[in-house]
Structures are given as structure tokens and as C-alpha cells.
């Protein structure tokens, strides 16, 4: 009898999760119910699955609304019906077509109108919904002729009185108003909740025809979906057989290129994989991915195939990945096997510049009716909850700005904040809006609207109304099309090297990305700023601790830095065993046999599965649960818990000591914090090495490319510093030399106009475009005639020195600018054949302080260019020790002067601690640790230079200074404000720093790990 149930997927309206909705049906003995969320089918597949589990008949549909106005309720009679509903919503969402008020064009959908708004003539599939409170209205004679078209309408939106209030708060959030200012039509009636079926039928006992109509239309609805059948595009060619033939031809063609001297090993592996691919009907999936890669190659794009797909030799031979699975002993079953319950996917990265081109190709090639992005539900988060609920209760913005960043314990304990907190807690994990999955694309065999309505987010590519987990459950294998800036840096560097030096670097030749002596030297010293994945302070420290000097150790490092390995203490233990291979024993023979390459330490996801199977005796099915948990797809620790009992039962049967079994499982369980599969680590390592190769041999071109691709872990200033350390001459933006991006002429690096924060992007692009069209700018007057610009923006360009080619001082140019613009923005006009000669202004010479330009640069760019920060200090002291000497000072106290690069906040039981990264006066990097008790006395005071006093701790070749005292050192007073003392230190106080935060605990120390180094009996 319940034809109109809302879940919380009716965004900012419903208050019940799908699971709770079904549970209420179970408790009330409801045998059939319809989920009809507002303008979305997001919850229907979960609803369908849960209803069947509880022997409830699921009916699915949608409630069609335009803003607050209910048009009608749609119930799908079959899969055809839900397709019709999906297409109605899709043309509205994607094409802007108005939703029809009456008589939607359906053939297999039942339509129910509200009593207060229905058309005079009803089609055969159209009915009128009567709410229990509307029964008295049926005495109206004019309604008698519609009795045969009436059904019971008992909407469900909330469960309790508290949820009803929550519904009103959600409506206020949606309407961007106060709860007290909501109008009656803004929210639902206060009786929209489940009641026992008998009670509902009793209310309509005088109108049995209405009850019979309701039962009949629910009986007519039958939504069924075979989730075991793949929904992806079935064939790349015209049949499964021809797909496999083509795949085999391409695989053997690639095999001959990849393995010219094969002894039969590669061929045997390829034959084995082809058999599994054919058996599981994955030929089309491989071929579609291959086709995308072929297009990418034709366009000259660089890509990286990573994830478990790199375990496949067929993927390697097709050029999807560049990882040889034989070299790293990667087994195909990790990617695709007959026991695997969920479909795999390829993760493929492109440069952030090229990704949209790839996406457009996919949509054009396979058709917009068959391609869409996965959706994702963006949930209410703590800060947004507090802001939104607080605003609904009338808290002013100024107060919300102060309170939202603080934990609830620091809020005033008054009635309003208590109410905000009370209802805010209920909103946790509620979906707030639908968004686009970052990379997952679905390519369907049937029109995709057979399964979902589509929405069009601002990005411009349609999305389905469910997430990746639902898509996987109903039989879709997604294609992960990702983007990253690291590939953009590599790609741009290769192009720049060819443009500036005439050298073609085949960076995709993986032979240069494995074992190059000078690269290995940089790697072992952690000289990797700018290099993909290996530039963060933590990663550079790890490389130095390992003295990482080859590709295979880099592969391991890429995984042991991950939270699962590091937090369990196994990263620390790996470092010890790597440096002391003769000071430990394998505590069981299985660990020696299966994990000998990593010193008996579980480093990769495959290692965990190996130990679970070979030590714990688990089944391959349990191994797949472990794999899903470690890849973040199986609810992590809860998923691991499912196999825990099996593990200990099996270990007991095998005869393992209980203490040993507990220790092994402790290590397995720690991987719920995520680790990489070995193939994924290898893919990352290859890209890291490619970027390192370019940094080592073409450092200036590489750093310019890093700057232009938005850098990475650090702010642009750090990459500019790296370029300077590599021999580049850094120059401020110039209207006659600079492009929008940073440019290179020999060793001269002209910073791009894009680095001038207050310069509009449009103007930053127009300046070089106009110069290319009509030649260099001849003067300031010539410039303002050709580029439409306001006086404020022109001042910024003058202050940064963009007109230094004129040979005039800044004060002269500023006065000239006033004469030329007089506070107005000139309209652009083309150059004329005859230009009036420029007026010459004779102004007195002004003596400028040498540091004035540096202060201008700090204000405009965020960092000084003309001088280093150390040059601008009041003190000439540079510290007693330099960074390069720190390893000699283990356990000794040192005093250093340093410029702050970044700091990372880490919570501890005693409070917040920080890890800092600095450069010394010679430009070399070093790291510090700041504990809570020390920070309370010597806190960070923003960016700038500090005098540091601390004790050096050298941990396996890597020095860290534990800080005892520190003080921010003052710059000289800003000479530009010699008459305004109160502004003399503004620029210095605004110098930037990179501050990051992690919620993980500090990595455990050696004495806290307890990982046995001796054989356990």
C-alpha cells in the first residue's frame, strides 16, 4: 500500500537510509513497498537487493517534482518502465527540456497525481493518489467519477518526531533560509511515516475500490535485474570470437616487440592469460582499453597504466602498461582469476592537460547514449554540517566562521549550539549532493538510460545517478581514466628539451628508467624535489634511510610509505633489515620462501595474500576478501574481520603456535589501512624514475616544466629555488619576454605572468598573444594602447619590473601610467599606421634602496627573486652547521639558520607535533621534529627564517634535528615604508609556508613495534 517512500537520496528532503527503510518494512510486516525518491533512481538497486533478502516485493520509481511542486509519482512496471523514467529525467537534466506537468509519454509506467493537481482526463496508466487525511474530501460529488482511478497515497519521509524536525532543517538548508521562515509547501506533512498496513487499510474501508486499485497497480509492477550478467559493451568487433582473434594477434605482435629474445617463458605466460581472458569474456574490455591507448599514442600523449592491471603480460604487450610482470614476478591472478567475484579495471593516467581530449574521444567513439561517468554521493561533513545547520537556526556568518573550524568541545554551551550539534550529528553520512567520480567511466552495451537517469555536472560529461559500488554490483566494469600533474611535467619537459636543445628524449623507453648510475646516486641522497611521488619530506627521508640506489628498492619504497605498512611498524622494520641483512632470522619458513625479496616483511597486497594462503591456509575466496579490504573496496577492517575466524581455525589445524598466529594476523590486519599492490608500486616507480632522469640530466627544463604544471607537494617558490640551484638565472615577469607560463631562454628563466596573483588570467594570456601578433611592446604608452588594462593592474606590472626594458625607474613609470590612464581602463584598439610620437617626461632621479624590489616581489609573487631571504635578514649570522654536514653530528647539539619550506601537523597523545622542512643559507634541505611541549614555548610564527637550536638524530643515514628552541629572525624594515613604521614588517609577516595535516598517529619507534626478528617456534 506504500507507493511513495523517500530515502535520504531525496537530497535535503528524506531522512531515512535505504537500509532503515527496508528494516521498517520488515518490522511492520509490509510485503510490498515502492521507493520513489525525488527526481532520482540512486537508491533503487540497493533497495531491490535488500527487499529480496527480506522477502519483500520491491517496486521502484521516481517522484517527479519541480522545486517544491509535486507533479506526479512514477512506478515502473518493469525494466522498460524504469528506462522510460530515466529518459524523461535525462533529457531534463542534460538537455534542459521542461518536465511535462501532465501526461508524460510512458507505456510501461504507472503515474499517480496528487488530489490537489490532476488533469481532467486521465490516461489508462494514470491515477489519483488519496492521502488518508483527504478521505473526507471524497464526499464531493465531482470526484465520484474518478473513484475507479484512485489509489492510496501514504508518503513516507521520516520515522520519528526528531527526524521530522531534521527534515525541516534539511528543507531550510535546501531553500537557503531559516527554519522559522519555511513556508507550508516547503516541507512535508507531519504524518509522512510508516503505519501498520492494517491501520492504513482500515482508514480506506469505506472505499474498497481504492484499496483494490492500489493492490492491482503494485501487483502489475515487477522490476527484475540480473546482476550476474556483465553490462559493459560486449564486443569490440562484431562477436566474441572475433574479439579474441584480434586480441591474440595484437598480443603476439606486442610479444615480439617486448620480448625479442624470449625463451618461451613469456609466450607460455601470454597463452595462459589469453585462456583466462577468453573464459571470463574480457577480450572486449582489453581491446577497448587498447583502442583508447592507440588514440593516445596517435595524439602524442604520454600515459601510465597502473594498478593490478600491470600484473598482466597481455596488457604489457598491448602497450596498456609498461611494467614487465616477469621481471618483478607479478602474478596475473591478482588482476584476473576464476575465483575473483568482482570485475577488475585498468587504472590509466594521463597528463591533466590531455585527459579531457581522451574523454571526448571515448564519448565520441562509443556514443553518448552508451557512455557516462560513475556518480558519487558527496556527504555532509562536520564543517559543512555545522555551517548549514547553524545558518538554518539563524547563527550569523561571522559566528559560524569562528565556530566551524573548532571542535564541538570549544563551542559555547548554549541552547542554539546544542540544537545545532544535536541535529548535525544526525546528518553525518547523509548524502548532500551528487557529483562526478574522479575517474570511473562506464561503457554499456545497452543504452545507459536503461539503468539510470543521467545528470550533467559543470565538468560537461554526463554522470549516472549511482556510485562505483552499485555499478560494480549490477555488472559494470568501469574504465578508470585519471589525470595527474606529474605526467604533465614529464611530457612538457621532453618537449622543452627538444625545443631548446634539439635533443629527443625517448622517456617511454623503460630501459633508461631502471638502472642509471647518476639517477641512482640522486635517489640514494633523496635529491628528488619535483619528481613524481618521491618528493615529499617523508619519501625523501625514506629513500635516504634505505640508501635506495636501484629500481627494485624504489618499487618497495613506493609501497612501504603507505599508511598500512608504515603504521604497523613494518616500514621501520624493513629499513632495519635492509640495512642489516645479517641481523635477523625469518620467523617461519613460509616467510623466507614467499617474502625473501622483502626480508620477510609484508610490503605489497600480494604478500598479504601469499601469507594468508600459504601460512594461514585460507581459501582463494577469503584471499579475495583480503584483496578488496586492502584496496579500500571492502570496508577495510570490517571486511578483514570476516576471515579472521577462518584464519585462526586453519592455523590451529596446521599446528602453528598461537603466539605466532596472532603476530602474523596482526601484520595482516594492519594492511586495512591500505597498501599498494606490487604492480601499482612498480608503475609509480617507473614514473618516479622517468621524472628523476629528466631532473638529473636536464634539470632546468625539468624544473620549468614542474613550475608550469603547478608543481606538486610544495609551493612554486620551492621549484623556483630548485631551478636556481640547478644553475638557472631567475628573472621576474617581463611583458616582452614572459609568456603566461614560465619560459626558458638558455639558462634565463622568466617567471610566467600566471604567477602574478592579482593579474587576471585573461590579461596574462592577452599580453603575450598581442606581442606575438604585433611585435614587442615599445614603451609603456605603446603597451596601454594595445592591452586593455586598469591602473591598479598596470601598477602591479610596474612594481614587479615587467617594464624594465624601458630603462626607466619604477617611480617614473608610475607617474607616466597616471598620465596615460588617469584612473580609466583603455579600450583595446589596433595599431594604426601613423602613431603620434611618445611624449618624454623628465623626472628627477630617485635613489632606491637595493631591497625595495625584493619586497615588491614578496608582495606580488609571494617570495623574493632579486635576493634570497637570508640576504634580507638583519643578522649576518648563517648558523654554525650546514645541512650537508648534519650526519657528522649524531646526538650533538647544533645551531642553524634556516628558511621554512613546509611543516606537517601530526596529532599525538600529548598534543600536536610538527615535522618541518627547511633550507639553509647554501640552499640545501634538512628536516626537524617539534614535540608538543617544545611547541608550547617555541611555536611556529608563519613563514620566514628561523634560528634553530636542537639535537641531531641520525636514523639510518638520515638526519633529523629535534628542536629545543627556535625564534623567527626579523628582516630589515621594509624600505618602501620608511615613513610608515607600522607597515615596515607587513611583507615579511605575510611570507608563505606550506602547512599540511595528517590524522594518522606518528609512526611507531623501534621499541614500540615488537616485530620478532628471531624464528618463532
UniProtKB/TrEMBL annotation:
| Pfam families reported in the protein's UniProt record | DNA_pol3_alpha (PF07733), DNA_pol3_finger (PF17657), HHH_6 (PF14579), PHP (PF02811)
- Give the InterPro entries listed for this entry: DNA_pol3_alpha_NTPase_dom, DNA_pol3_finger, DnaE2/DnaE/PolC, DNAPol_HHH, PHP_dom, Pol/His_phosphatase_N, Pol/histidinol_Pase-like
The answer on whether this UniProt entry bears the keyword Transferase reads yes
Keywords attached to this entry = DNA replication, DNA-directed DNA polymerase, Nucleotidyltransferase, Transferase
Which GO MF terms are attached to this record?
3'-5' exonuclease activity; DNA-directed DNA polymerase activity
Annotated Polymerase/histidinol phosphatase N-terminal domain ranges read 5-68
CDD domains, alphabetically? PHP_PolIIIA
Looking up SMART domains in the UniProt record yields: POLIIIAc
Give the catalysed reaction(s), semicolon-separated: DNA(n) + a 2'-deoxyribonucleoside 5'-triphosphate = DNA(n+1) + diphosphate
Share an example GO biological-process annotation for this protein: DNA replication
Q: Does the keyword Nucleotidyltransferase apply?
A: yes
Which EC numbers does the record give? Answer: 2.7.7.7
Q: What is this protein called?
A: DNA-directed DNA polymerase
Source organism per UniProt: Chryseobacterium carnipullorum
Amino acid at each position: 500500500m506504500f507507493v511513495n517512500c523517500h530515502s535520504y537520496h531525496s537530497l535535503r528532503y528524506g531522512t531515512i537510509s535505504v537500509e532503515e527503510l527496508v528494516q521498517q518494512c520488515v518490522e511492520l510486516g509490509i510485503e510490498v513497498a515502492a521507493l520513489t525518491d525525488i527526481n532520482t533512481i540512486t537508491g533503487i538497486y540497493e533497495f531491490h537487493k535488500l527487499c529480496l533478502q527480506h522477502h519483500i516485493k520491491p517496486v521502484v520509481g521516481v517522484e517527479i517534482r519541480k522545486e517544491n511542486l509535486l507533479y506526479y509519482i512514477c512506478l515502473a512496471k518493469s525494466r522498460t518502465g524504469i528506462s522510460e523514467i530515466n529518459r524523461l529525467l535525462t533529457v531534463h537534466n542534460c538537455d534542459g527540456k521542461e518536465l511535462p506537468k501532465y501526461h508524460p509519454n510512458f507505456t510501461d509506467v504507472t503515474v499517480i497525481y496528487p488530489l490537489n493537481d490532476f488533469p481532467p482526463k486521465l490516461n489508462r496508466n494514470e491515477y489519483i493518489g488519496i492521502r488518508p487525511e483527504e478521505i473526507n474530501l471524497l464526499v464531493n460529488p465531482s470526484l465520484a467519477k474518478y473513484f475507479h482511478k484512485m489509489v492510496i497515497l501514504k508518503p513516507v519521509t521520516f520515522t520519528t518526531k526528531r527526524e521530522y524536525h531534521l527534515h525541516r532543517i534539511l528543507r531550510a538548508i535546501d531553500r537557503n533560509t531559516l527554519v522559522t521562515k519555511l513556508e507550508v509547501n516547503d516541507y512535508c506533512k507531519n504524518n509522512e511515516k510508516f503505519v501498520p498496513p492494517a491501520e492504513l487499510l482500515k482508514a480506506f474501508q469505506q472505499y474498497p475500490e481504492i484499496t483494490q486499485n492500489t493492490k492491482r497497480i503494485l501487483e502489475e509492477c515487477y522490476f527484475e535485474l540480473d546482476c550476474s550478467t556483465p553490462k559493459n559493451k560486449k564486443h569490440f568487433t562484431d562477436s566474441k570470437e572475433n574479439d579474441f582473434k584480434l586480441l591474440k594477434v595484437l598480443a603476439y605482435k606486442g610479444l615480439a616487440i617486448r620480448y625479442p629474445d624470449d625463451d618461451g617463458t613469456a609466450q607460455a605466460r601470454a597463452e595462459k592469460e589469453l585462456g583466462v581472458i577468453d573464459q571470463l569474456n574480457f577480450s572486449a574490455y582489453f581491446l577497448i582499453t587498447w583502442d583508447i591507448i592507440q588514440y593516445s599514442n596517435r595524439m602524442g600523449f604520454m600515459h601510465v597504466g597502473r594498478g593490478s592491471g600491470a600484473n598482466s603480460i597481455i596488457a604489457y604487450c598491448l602497450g596498456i602498461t609498461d611494467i614487465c610482470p616477469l621481471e618483478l614476478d607479478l602474478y596475473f591472478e591478482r588482476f584476473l582469476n576464476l575465483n575473483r567475484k568482482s570485475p577488475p579495471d585498468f587504472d590509466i593516467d594521463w597528463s591533466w592537460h590531455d585527459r579531457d581530449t581522451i574523454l571526448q574521444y571515448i564519448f565520441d567513439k562509443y556514443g553518448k547514449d552508451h557512455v557516462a561517468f560513475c556518480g558519487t554521493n558527496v556527504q555532509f561533513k562536520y564543517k559543512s554540517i555545522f555551517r548549514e545547520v547553524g545558518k538554518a537556526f539563524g547563527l550569523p556568518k561571522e559566528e559560524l566562521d569562528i565556530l566551524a573550524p573548532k571542535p564541538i568541545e570549544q563551542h559555547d554551551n548554549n541552547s542554539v549550539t546544542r540544537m545545532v550539534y544535536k541535529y548535525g550529528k544526525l546528518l553525518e553520512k547523509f548524502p548532500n549532493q551528487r557529483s562526478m567520480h574522479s575517474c570511473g567511466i562506464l561503457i554499456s552495451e545497452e543504452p545507459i538510460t536503461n539503468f539510470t537517469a543521467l545528470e550533467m555536472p559543470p565538468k560537461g560529461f554526463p554522470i549516472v545517478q549511482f556510485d562505483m559500488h552499485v555499478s560494480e554490483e549490477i555488472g559494470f566494469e568501469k574504465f578508470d581514466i585519471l589525470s595527474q600533474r606529474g605526467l604533465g611535467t614529464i611530457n612538457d619537459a621532453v618537449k622543452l628539451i627538444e625545443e631548446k636543445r634539439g635533443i629527443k628524449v625517448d622517456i617511454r623507453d623503460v630501459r633508461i628508467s631502471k638502472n642509471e648510475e647518476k639517477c641512482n646516486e640522486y635517489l640514494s641522497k633523496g635529491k628528488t624535489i619535483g619528481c613524481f611521488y618521491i618528493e615529499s619530506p617523508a619519501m625523501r627521508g625514506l629513500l635516504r634511510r634505505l640508501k635506495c640506489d636501484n629500481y627494485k628498492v624504489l618499487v618497495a619504497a613506493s609501497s612501504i610509505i603507505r599508511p598500512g605498512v608504515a603504521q604497523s611498524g613494518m616500514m621501520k622494520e624493513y629499513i632495519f633489515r635492509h640495512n642489516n641483512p645479517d641481523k635477523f632470522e625469518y620467523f617461519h619458513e613460509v616467510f623466507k620462501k614467499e617474502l625473501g625479496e622483502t626480508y620477510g616483511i609484508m610490503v605489497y597486497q600480494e604478500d598479504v595474500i601469499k601469507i594468508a594462503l600459504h601460512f594461514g591456509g585460507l581459501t582463494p575466496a577469503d584471499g579475495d576478501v583480503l584483496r578488496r579490504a586492502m584496496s579500500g573496496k571492502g570496508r577495510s577492517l570490517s571486511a578483514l574481520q570476516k576471515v579472521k575466524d577462518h584464519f585462526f581455525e586453519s592455523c590451529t589445524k596446521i599446528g602453528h603456535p598461537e603466539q605466532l598466529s596472532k603476530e602474523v594476523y596482526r601484520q595482516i590486519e594492519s594492511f586495512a589501512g591500505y597498501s599498494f599492490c606490487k604492480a601499482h608500486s612498480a608503475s609509480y616507480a617507473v614514473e618516479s624514475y622517468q621524472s628523476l632522469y629528466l631532473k638529473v640530466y636536464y634539470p632546468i627544463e625539468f624544473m620549468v616544466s614542474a613550475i608550469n604544471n603547478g608543481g606538486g607537494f610544495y609551493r612554486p617558490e620551492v621549484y623556483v629555488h630548485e631551478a636556481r640551484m640547478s644553475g638557472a638565472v631567475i628573472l621576474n615577469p617581463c611583458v616582452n619576454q614572459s609568456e603566461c607560463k614560465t619560459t626558458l631562454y638558455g639558462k634565463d628563466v622568466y617567471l610566467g605572468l600566471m604567477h602574478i596573483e592579482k593579474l587576471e588570467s585573461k590579461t596574462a594570456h592577452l599580453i603575450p598573444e598581442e606581442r606575438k601578433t604585433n611585435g614587442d611592446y615599445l614603451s609603456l604608452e605603446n603597451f596601454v594602447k594595445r592591452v586593455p588594462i586598469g591602473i591598479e593592474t598596470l601598477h602591479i606590472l610596474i612594481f614587479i619590473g615587467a617594464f624594465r626594458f624601458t630603462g626607466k625607474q619604477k617611480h617614473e613609470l608610475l607617474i607616466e601610467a597616471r598620465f596615460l590612464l588617469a584612473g580609466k581602463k583603455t579600450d583595446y584598439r589596433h595599431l594604426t599606421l601613423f602613431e603620434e610620437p611618445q611624449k618624454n617626461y623628465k623626472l628627477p632621479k630617485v635613489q632606491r634602496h637595493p631591497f625595495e624590489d625584493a619586497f615588491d616581489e614578496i608582495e606580488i609573487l609571494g617570495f623574493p627573486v632579486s635576493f634570497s631571504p637570508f640576504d634580507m635578514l638583519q643578522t649576518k649570522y648563517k648558523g654554525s652547521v650546514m645541512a650537508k654536514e648534519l650526519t657528522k653530528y649524531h646526538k650533538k647539539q647544533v645551531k642553524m639558520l634556516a628558511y621554512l619550506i613546509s611543516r606537517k601537523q601530526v596529532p599525538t597523545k600529548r598534543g600536536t607535533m610538527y615535522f618541518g622542512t627547511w633550507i639553509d643559507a647554501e640552499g640545501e634541505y634538512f628536516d626537524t621534529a617539534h614535540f608538543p611541549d617544545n611547541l608550547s614555548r617555541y611555536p611556529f610564527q608563519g613563514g620566514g627564517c628561523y634560528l634553530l637550536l636542537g639535537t641531531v638524530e641520525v636514523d639510518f643515514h638520515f638526519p633529523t634535528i629535534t628542536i629545543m628552541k627556535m625564534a623567527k629572525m626579523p628582516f630589515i624594515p621594509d624600505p618602501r615604508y620608511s615613513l610608515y613604521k607600522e607597515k615596515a614588517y607587513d611583507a615579511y609577516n605575510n611570507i608563505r609556508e606550506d602547512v599540511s595535516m595528517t590524522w594518522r598517529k606518528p609512526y611507531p619507534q623501534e621499541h614500540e613495534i615488537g616485530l620478532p626478528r628471531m624464528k618463532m617456534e
